[in-house]
Amino acid sequence: MNSAKLSHRSPTTDHGSQAFPKELASSVAISQSLEELGWIPRPKLLALRRLGIETVEDLLTHFPRRHEDRTEFPQFPREESDVPICLCGEVTKTSLRRFGGWRKIFEVTLQESNPNALSEPLVCRWFNLHYVQKMIATGQRMVVFGKPRLRGKRICMDHPEFEVIENDEEISIHFRRITPIYPATEGLSQRVLRGMIYRLLNELPSTDAGLERLTPSNLAKGERRDAIRAIHFPASWEARDAAHEHLVLTEFFAMQMLIASRRADASIRQGEKHCGAGALLDRLLKSLPFELTAAQSRVISEIRHDLAASHAMNRLLQGDVGSGKTAVAIAAMLLAVEGGYQAAFMAPTQILAEQHYDVLQRWLDPLGIRVALRTAARQEESGPLPLFEHAGNSERQEPQIIVGTHALLYDKVSFSKLGLVVVDEQHKFGVAQRAQLSAREPAPDVLVMTATPIPRTLTMTIYGDLDVSTID
Question: Please, what is the end-to-end C-alpha distance for the chain in angstroms?
């Protein structure tokens, strides 16, 4: 397919990233608030906050979701395609058609910049988007991105992404280059967002303060500062790919360092031994109408070893639905209870918490274990609930196992001697939620469970701070 080439290319540096002019004398700090810059209007600041962008670093690390090659454009298609393409043309006609009362179709006809006898116009259509009509006028040059479809005898794009190209001093930022396309929001156009980032890159100080390399030199090539420049305004697709690789490796390396730090902190955090002799566990296993599988017995032994250690347990238990994770969790809680400690069983929903509570009651009532339920809507305890307190028994015994939802995170649920925290379906809880329950002194043991299959490499990457047991 022939392409319409545009002659001007932005200058590049030797390392492959876009060359940025140095005429701006002022410089910004990476940690500086965008509001302190003074040149971003307040409505744009509010729009940026909706994207979670409040500092210079936030904006510089708001990476493009894709790039468009606006150095050259293909000819307008004559057939439809399932692959979205980027096209540029001049608006030759606009029209607004109404149908069905209040419904509207706004159509824009685009013509190629250098048409020939075989060139066909492209019709872009938007349904009930009134603001688009105010943004496009005849004679403007537009870049559109979408899937061409054959509608009758016309080639159309329905609801394409578009950008009006204005011939001003900033045209080199948005046109005749590999152009970044960002996640945006209402009140913040691609043009405005791209211009802000371009200006910030110009105003960065000459030092690498705040943008230092985070990875070893043998892991990622180049500097982080150059990678951030190149991911926004790459001089070539190769430079874009190299910057993307550098930033991905940097992010994974930082995540691994954080996980290693958490693991190191957990290993030196002092805890207590929360393991009993196992008499209660033996009584439970004898009362069950089935025998544990070899995998369940192996995992219980691993947990038992952790409970008997003086450092806090931090273990992930994964297994398919029906593999017997609940039985393993009950065994762990019985060991903690026999050691003289309380156990907390945390479920993501009230229904699941009530189901666990019913199972624990059936299994543990014959053993004399006191179980309580604590959710936002329901609070119950097993065992006798006397109507009158007697003089010699004025204090109710505390529950040994408490089952609940996020209600266990709040102060109204008190633990006098918490030794074990079990979190079911851990992927539905945030890290901060789990930490709030387990951040006690002395540190309780923590067992988190999931039925979501996690490949070994991914498990090591994301849950590297946890010991992993699998019921296979």
Answer: 54
Architecture label for domain 72-168: Beta Barrel (2.40)
Report CA 291 to chain centroid distance, whole Å. 41
Query: CA-CA distance, 95 to 125, in Å (whole number)?
Result: 10
- Alpha carbons within 13 angstroms on the beta-carbon side of residue 137 total 3
* CA neighbor of 229 nearest in space, from 10, 443, 429: 10
Q: How far is CA 258 from CA 238, 263, 264, 323, in A?
A: 30, 9, 10, 32
User: Cβ distance 56 to 200 under 8 Å?
Assistant: yes
Average pLDDT, the chain: 84
CB 399 within 8 A of CB 381: yes
Q: What is the CATH number of domain 279-382+398-471?
A: 3.40.50.300
> What is the band of 389 on the pLDDT scale with cuts at 50, 70, 90?
very low
pLDDT at 15 over 70: no
283 backbone φψ class: left, alpha, beta (φ>0; ψ -120 to 50) = alpha
Q: Is the pLDDT of residue 234 over 90?
A: yes
Q: How far apart are CA 343 and CA 361, in angstroms?
A: 14
Residue % of the chain over a pLDDT of 70: 83
Domain residue extents for the chain:
3-67+180-253, 72-168, 279-382+398-471
Q: Is the dihedral of CA 447, 453, 455, 461 positive or negative?
A: negative
CA distance 299 to 304: 8
When pLDDT is cut at 50, 70 and 90, the band that residue 212 belongs to is: confident
- What is the band of 312 on the pLDDT scale with cuts at 50, 70, 90? confident
In sequence order, what are the residues at sequence separation of 6 or more whose Cβ sits closer than 8 angstroms to the Cβ of residue 207?
none
CA distance 263 to 247: 24
How far, in Å, CA of 66 to CA of 84, rounded? 12
Report which of residues 379 and 245 the model is more confident about.
Answer: 245
Give me the percent of the chain exceeding a pLDDT of 90: 51
Residue 410's pLDDT is 66
State the CB neighbour count (10 A cutoff) for residue 173.
Answer: 19
